[in-house]
Design goal:
This protein has helices at residues 2-9, 34-42, 47-53, 59-77; strands at 14-15, 26-27. It has 78 residues and is mainly alpha-helical. It has one domain: Arc Repressor Mutant, subunit A (Orthogonal Bundle). The protein has a two-stranded antiparallel sheet with strand order 1-2. Helix 1 crosses helix 4.
């Protein structure tokens, strides 16, 4: 599972820093807001298209983010 891979790497998926886009949550190590991914998916665009538009974000990070979001939503629903 990719999310487990990210946890083993102890890599943060998201960061928020006042010096980067006024604390907008971004994919760690990039200046790409998480909202860009959710906006693309909401519009019906594919992950592949997102990755083409934002090559500084890896597929592993996108999948790990989506898996973590799913986990958090399931936990909140219980």
């Amino acid at each position: 599972m990719l999310c487990a891979h990210m946890k083993r790497m102890k890599t943060r998926l998201i960061t928020s820093d006042p010096d980067i886009l006024d604390s907008t949550p971004v994919f760690a190590g990039t200046r790409v807001p998480i909202k860009n991914l959710t906006d693309c998916l909401e519009a019906g665009d594919s992950i592949d298209l997102f990755l083409e538009d934002f090559p500084s974000v890896s597929r592993v990070r996108v999948i790990a983010f989506l898996e973590e979001a799913r986990t958090q939503l399931v936990a909140a629903a219980v």
